[in-house]
Amino acid sequence: xKIAVAGGTGVAGRLVVEALRAxxxxxxxxxxxQGVDLLSGSGLDAALAGAEAxxxxxxxxxxxxSVAVDFFDRAGRHLVAAAxxxxxxxLVTLSIVGVDRVRSPYYAGELRQEEIVRGQxxxxxILRSTQFHEFAGQLxxxxxxPVAVVPAGxxxxxxxxxxxxxxxGLALGAPxxxxxxxxxxxxxxxxxxxxxxxxxxxxxxxxxxPLRVPGGMSRGGLLPTGAGPRGTQTFxxxxxxxxxxxxx
Length: 248
Fold this sequence. Notes:
This protein is an alpha/beta fold. About 40% of the residues lie in helices and about 15% in strands. The N and C termini lie far apart (about 45 Å). The strands form three sheets. A six-stranded parallel beta sheet has the order 2-1-3-4-5-8, sandwiched between helices. The chain has a two-stranded parallel ribbon with strand order 6-10.
């Protein structure tokens, strides 16, 4: 089966491509390097010709709401329109647990993406996943200076490869609309994750200042709200692998 992967060169996308190949499928990466531009729509029709399914893990790195909304709006509209023209039978889109409960500039963009998917004619599945194990490191990277200010919230982090496997499996099945939320095996404190990451040498060592932030993140907004599939790799397991793979 020909399955197109939007964002197939990213952290999650590369693993989605690997998961599809392991299942004997024929993934096609939608990327600028392959002559496809989601923001302009250039190259999409040719890339999607003959595709039966599309997995969208496209992403933009930003903390500005206007940038996030613009990216997901333009990329989403072009992708779903091209998928409809190509006769794609299933569009699978990755989103984030809590995207509708946590007020965040980036999440506003993800919500716009969900709105576009729901409003188009191609049968669809949206999978909301909890944040990846890398989330604490991403927060630390975004806070310069001698003190790391980290939101005092809880998450249930999951391994990226487990999300990729779930997306590949969904693409091969029937559309579900909103799939059950996918989460990691254990609830963790973001502050504790940041400290453990620094102690393991995965981030620059500095004092951590917990901060209660408005918008729902510090009130459990990033946790799943119901039953659903759960990953198996804990943050501790992931951190151990990361530390072992880091050159001394």
